[in-house]
Structures are given as C-alpha cells and as structure tokens.
Specification:
By secondary structure, the chain is mostly helical. Helix content is 59%, strand content 4%.
C-alpha cells in the first residue's frame, strides 16, 4: 500500500491508495500475446497465410465429420479402422454438432474457447505467490508453433482438460483425478499425469476419482452405443508410423536401398510395412514397458516431494510414452507443450531446460509436417534429416526430464557435524610486583 496525500480537506487526513500490481503488466502482455498468436493460427487454418500446400483441415471436415454422421446413429464407427480412440472421444466429435455453424467452423470455435480457458488457468496459477507466468508464456508461444495443425485436431481439447486436471490435483485431488480420468477416456494419455501425485491421501483420492470417472462414463457410453472398445483391436494391429522414432532405421535403410517395404495408409496413418517392421514394433512396445518400469522404480524410491514434483513427473511420463510410441503424430507435441506449461507455473520446477527443448522440437515438427511431409513420406534426404533432428530432440528431452526428476526427488543430504579444533588455552601471565603494590595502595584509600 502506498500513502497518497489527499490535499487540504480541513481534517488533515490522508487517503490510502493501492499500489499498482506488478503482475498487472504481465497479465496484459500475456493476453495481448495470446490474441495475436491465435489470430495468426486462424489466418493459417483459413488459408489466408499458407506455410505449405497440404490441406490440414481435411481431418475435421472429412474424417471427424464422417465419424459424427455415424455416431449420431448410436454406434461407434465399427467398420472404420481409422477410429483409434477411446469411447470418450465420441463426446468431443459430437460436440460441434450442437453449435449453429458448419461442423468445421464449430470445431474451430470450440478449439478457440478451450484454448482461452487453458490460458486463463495458467495465468491464474502463475499469479499465485511463489508461482510464475513462465508457464503461460510457454502456452502462448508453443501452441502456434504447431501451425494450423493445432486447431485441426482434437488434441488441443484433450490437452486443455489435462491442464485443468493437473492444476487442480494438489488442492482438490478428487476434482483433478476426475478431470484426468475423463481425459483418459477421451485419449488415454492424460491418466499419465497421475504418475507424480504425492503419496498418501492425495494419491488415494485422485486415483480413486480417476478410476470412478473412467468406469462410470465408460460404462454409460458402452451401454448406450455399440462398439465402444473396438479401438483396442485396431490399436493392437498397428504398425510403425513414418514419423515415429522406431521408423528412423527403416528410413535410413530405405535411403541406402536396403529396405524393400512400402509406405501406405494403414489404420488411419501412413505406416511403414514390410521387413523388420514386426521386430521394431515389438521393440517399441518393450521400450514403453521399460520406461514405465523406470517410472515405477522412481516413484517407489522418491524421498522428497516438492510443489513441482507432480507436474514434473507428469511431463517425464508423457515424454516416455511419446518417444516409445509406434506413432508420433505432429499434434502430439501440443500434449507436451501443455504439460510443460503447467510445470513452469512453479518457480522451482526441474523441467525448465526440458521445456525449452520441447519448444524447439515443436518448431521442427511443423517443418517436418506439413512443410516437408512429402519428403518424409518418400524417405528423401532432407525430410529424413529433419525427422531425425525432431526425434532425437524428443529423445534428449525424455532422458533429461527423467534425470532431472530423479535428482530433484532424492533424499536430502543429512546435515554433517563439523568439529572445530579446540582453541589454545590463554597463556597465564604472572602478576608483576608493581601492579600488586598499586593495588595495595588503592585498597588502603578505600
């Protein structure tokens, strides 16, 4: 509070005026940054600004809208192997039909609204004492780095649900768990955000709420519509998608003329089919199992939980899941941007350098898709080089994230007792006779 003289009022009193909040300027800057960058995204999705010749809106206008037509009949797309999603995804696909505009425009509106809500939550979290606006800045910058793709996939909606769940899970574990459980019913991965909940009551309440939400909503969807869990069969039969880490050996072999397989549309994505694919697919699944095994060991051995630990563990778990997946689609990067943004709302997070790598990786991903995707598809040198850089950056981010998470939760070192050498005894001085005589005189005067 600042004292401000009120002027001559006859009583000589002063009035109190609140000092301007230092966060006010940051909030205005964040809001302006969000508006500008989202306007840029809309210009790209509408074709006013073009970064490539690919039409990234087809997933919404053709695929999603086709699923919407089938879902309206009360059944899941049982005959469409491109339906690779849990039953909760049906709610997201049906949602644009409730709005008065065309399906494509309604989808953009929903993406814009949930984007703004996620931004508001990150700003609110950053304004608290001991927190930071860095997370909100990561969201402002990271989302548009994916180009028009980010508003043409429903992953932005899932990410916003996860951001809300993560930011709630410490203070309101039941609400956070319910949101993350619902997110898992829409696209599986949000359940990984529960990997770092503090041991004890918060873990019990959040995990129970997540399981209850998964079970209740999943049961209702399965009871009300046919084929709710057919996606599991489709996922089981998937191969190696051209953008995954496991596809890199095949790309290099293809460049050298040593791989005679083919790249074709399979289960809704371009996959590499032919020799070595089954082996690499099993290796990817084994990598996922090993990564989750490491996370379990970390959780059992972690001794120190900090305010950032639940968020940091969520990012590490998501990175492990992403980098070992048989599919790494461009929109997966918005998952990482969202969770990294939550991490950076806490000043003491261990994941700051990881977030920087994720932002760089997001930019490289847009260069890989849609700009150079034709060259990636054909395993041409430039496309393979960019894909290699992107995937190695993801791998580096994963290893660094896990390492820093492990170190941040080690038991604090026990205080050490330092024994100082004893001071030498003061030398004993003999009393000089003159001083004794003077003292005798003083005693006589008294």
């Amino acid at each position: 509070m600042a004292l401000v003289h009120a002027g001559p009022t006859g009583s000589g009193s002063t009035a109190l005026s609140p000092a301007p909040s230092p966060a006010g300027g940051a909030l205005w800057a964040l809001g302006a940054g969000w508006v500008v960058t989202r306007a840029l995204i809309l210009l790209m999705v509408m074709g006013v600004i073009r970064i490539s010749g690919a039409d990234v809106t087809a997933d919404v206008s053709v695929i999603y809208h086709g699923w919407y037509e089938v879902l309206q009949t009360g059944t899941f797309p049982l005959d469409d192997v491109t339906w690779q999603y849990p039953p909760g995804a049906a709610l997201v696909i049906l949602l644009p039909g409730l709005l008065p505009w065309s399906y494509l425009v309604s989808f953009y509106v929903i993406c814009g609204v949930v984007d703004a809500l996620a931004m508001g939550l990150l700003m609110r979290a950053g304004a608290k004492r001991g927190r930071s606006f860095s997370g909100a800045w990561v969201w402002v910058a990271g989302v548009p780095l994916l180009g028009p793709t980010v508003y043409c996939r429903y992953d932005l909606i899932v990410t916003a649900i996860t951001v809300a769940g993560l930011l709630s899970v410490l203070r309101r574990p039941a609400l956070g768990g319910a949101l993350l459980g619902f997110g898992a019913l829409v696209k599986v991965w949000p359940v990984l955000a529960l990997a770092g909940t503090p041991k004890g009551r918060r873990t019990r309440r959040s995990w129970t709420a997540a399981l209850a939400t998964l079970s209740a909503v999943g049961f209702l969807l399965a009871a009300g519509m046919n084929g709710a869990f057919e996606f599991l069969k489709f996922q089981r039969d998937r191969g190696i998608e051209v953008e995954s880490l496991a596809a890199l050996p095949l790309h290099f072999a293809r460049l050298a003329g040593g791989w005679r397989g083919q790249v074709s549309m399979n289960y809704g994505s371009l996959e590499m089919l032919g020799p070595w694919v089954p082996v690499l697919s099993k290796a990817a699944v084994a990598g996922t199992a090993l990564g989750f095994g490491w996370l379990l060991v970390w959780r059992l051995r972690a001794k120190r939980w900090q305010p950032s630990t639940p968020y940091d563990a969520a990012l590490a778990a998501l990175l492990v899941f992403t980098v070992t997946s048989r599919v790494i689609s461009p929109q997966y990067l918005v998952w990482l941007v969202g969770v990294a943004a939550v991490c950076l709302t806490v000043r003491g997070t261990s994941q700051k350098p990881v977030a920087v790598i994720i932002l760089v990786t997001t930019l490289v991903t847009t260069l890989e898709f849609p700009v150079l995707f034709g060259q990636v598809h054909a395993s041409q040198p430039l496309g393979v080089a960019v894909l290699t850089v992107r995937n190695l950056l993801l791998l580096a981010a994963t290893l660094l994230s896990c390492r820093r998470l492990w170190r941040s939760t080690r038991a604090p070192e026990a205080p050490r007792t330092v024994v100082l050498p004893a001071l030498p005894a003061a030398p004993a001085y003999t009393i000089r006779p003159g001083i004794t005589y003077e003292q005798h005189l003083l005693d006589g005067i008294k």
